[in-house]
Specification:
Blueprint: E1 3-7, E2 10-13, E3 18-25, E4 34-39, E5 46-51, E6 57-59, E7 67-72, E8 77-82, E9 91-99, E10 102-105, E11 109-114
Parallel strand pairs: 2-11
Antiparallel strand pairs: 1-3, 3-8, 4-5, 4-9, 5-6, 7-8, 9-10, 9-11
Length: 115
């Protein structure tokens, strides 16, 4: 079945960096766009970035210039490089696949940025 597994979260000081990974299985990874979302405590889940099958990328204004989404089709993995982290980036980060009319989510990985 379709499965997404995130890793790479952790605790980092403001200004630091983290790289998240999401490894996919159960579908033809290379033909699908992939996205990252995040959900902070008490807030709704919000979109962070998308990468298409052609590696075109889009970012939320709040992360533009600081985060980079990329993919390795040979490894069925999508990445989120996060630089210049801010306390407001603290959230659970989720990998997302939209396949047909269905959204598939990973279990999430916690990112905590201390001030």
């Amino acid at each position: 079945q379709v499965q997404l597994v995130e890793s790479g979260g952790g605790l980092v000081q403001a200004g630091g960096s983290l790289k998240l990974s999401c490894t996919a299985s159960g579908f033809i990874f290379r033909i699908f766009a992939m996205a990252w979302y995040r959900q902070a405590p008490g807030k709704q889940r919000e979109w962070v970035a998308t990468i298409t099958s052609y590696t075109s990328t889009n970012y939320a204004d709040s992360v533009k210039g600081r985060f980079t989404i990329s993919r390795d089709n040979a490894k069925n993995t999508v990445y989120l490089q996060m630089n210049s982290l801010k306390p407001e980036d603290t959230a659970v980060y989720y990998c997302n696949l939209a396949i047909g009319s269905r959204d598939v989510w990973g279990q999430g990985t916690q990112v905590t940025v201390s001030s």
